Amino acid sequence: MAEAPSTRVWIGRLVFIALAMVLIFGQLLPLDTRPTGWAAPNWLLAITLLWITRRPDYVPVFVIAGIFLLADLLFQRPPGLWTALVVILTEMFRTRTARLRDLPLLLEWGTVAVGIVAITLINRAVLMVAMSPQQPLALTLIEMIMTIAFFPVVIAIAQFVFGVTRPALGEVDSRGHRL
User: Where are the chain's structural domains?
Assistant: First the structure.
């Protein structure tokens, strides 16, 4: 017997939250105290954008806002700026889920890349206008490029390990609404 759709949604939500918490606290661990010349991808942003483009019903907006606000506070970034930009981007993708479902991988990757570039540049511009301290431009660009480059890896891991796939045509939620 197949599991109920609402059970699948709650399991998907819990997996997303657990994975986000592991990523946040993994970044806080002092594994290497030497400064590096490169920046790792923003894995939290990549998994959030993957979950929102593939299964938006798994990630409500308050979960995204809460996780990214927690990340802002723990990583000592200006509270709410990155959170607001990510929430705006994810809600733009949520309204376009029907169109994103039919896109091939390269176009989905390109759409996500444009969104990542946009919020990264807006974040830098707002921090510059507010005269807040920020990381060097080269590190910001490396992080942005690495996040875009590793997005297909995140897709593969999410699909094969966590089972996050696009909804099938005609698939409905627990209330009978089309996904």
Answer: 5-28+42-160
In the chain, % helix, strand, coil (3-state, to 5) comes to: 70, 0, 30
The closest alpha carbon to 42, from 96, 127, 115, belongs to 115
Q: Give the separation between CA 48 and CA 54, rounded to whole angstroms.
A: 10
Whether pLDDT at 178 is above 80: no
5 three-class SS: helix
Per-residue b or e along 90-125, where b marks 16 or more CB atoms closer than 10 Å to that residue's CB = beebbeebeebbeeeeeebbebbbebbeebbebbbe
Residues 158-174, mean pLDDT to the nearest whole number: 72
Whether 91 has a pLDDT exceeding 90, the answer reads yes
Q: What is the pLDDT of residue 44?
A: 94
CB atoms within 10 A of CB 55: 23
Burial class (CB in 10 A: 0-12, 13-18, 19+), 52: buried
